[in-house]
Amino acid sequence: MKLAIDGMGGDNAPKAVVEGVLLALDEFPNIEIQLYGNQRELQPLLKEHSRLQVIHCEEVVEAEDDPARAVRRKKDSSMARMLEAVNEGRADACLSAGNTGALMAGGLFKVGRIEGVSRPALATTLPTIDGKGFLMLDLGANADAKPENLVQYAIMGNIYAKKVRGIDNPRIGLLNIGTEEKKGNDLTKSVFGLLKEADLNFVGNVEARDLLDNVADVVVTDGFTGNMVLKTIEGTAGALMSMIKDVFMASGKTKIGALLVKGEMKGLKSKLDYSEHGGAALFGLQAPVVKAHGSSNARAIYNAIRQASIMVEHNVTDVIKTTIADNPVQQ
Asked: Which EC class heads this enzyme's classification (predicted)?
């Protein structure tokens, strides 16, 4: 399979992107990578590889660029050229750690939406206490949503959980302010009824405080709420690790304790580390488009590449197409 990668996107590009690409090429013999970016900056970081092709681009979509304008006007940017490769069938999937809005806009304009999908959703796997994790969507592709949008998110999330995460009968939860059926606003009340009737393993409403307790395998919500929950979890995880470090560094006695539990603390950090869970996938497009975290290191890029390759290998997009066509949601 062929993967197109934006070599210039992200806070640590191009170095982290190149390192992640080389890790993936060593680990996955079935992938070929097209790396888009400024060859003058990329080449000193690379080593020769038969399954790696560098495509020179003069422009870069910057973090502060207006999303729609950036993709439309910066036609020779690494992100735009990467998306075009997918659109033209020269690559099976693509990923970038760059401007999220531009990638979502470019995904819609250049890769295109699956027929029958009203709105694509941004989804990623978040950590749980037991280490299994859960998929959550939408995480910000659409601030506003209608009931039918969330039902489609559930259908697409269900397919991903089965095909990529290997869960036979994923539990689908609806994020709400209480577990009772009648709780919530007009949106969640409407969605609850629709999900009850859908051919899904719907376990009902789930509360934000229970998400890390593995109450569901797939959690659906609108993009406004989902983005706030995502950033709250990320911020809390970072703050927690910082507070634990401060406690261990407080005195000679606690420093000795830190040495004794060093291995266990690394395990905890790994559980909470976004880089171990790949990127956020845009569900509902004609091909896999993966958004790696803006601050991705080499390990995070490697895991995002792994995620994209699994989506291609298991034909996630084709399964979504078929399932949506067979289960149209009333618009």
From this structure: transferase
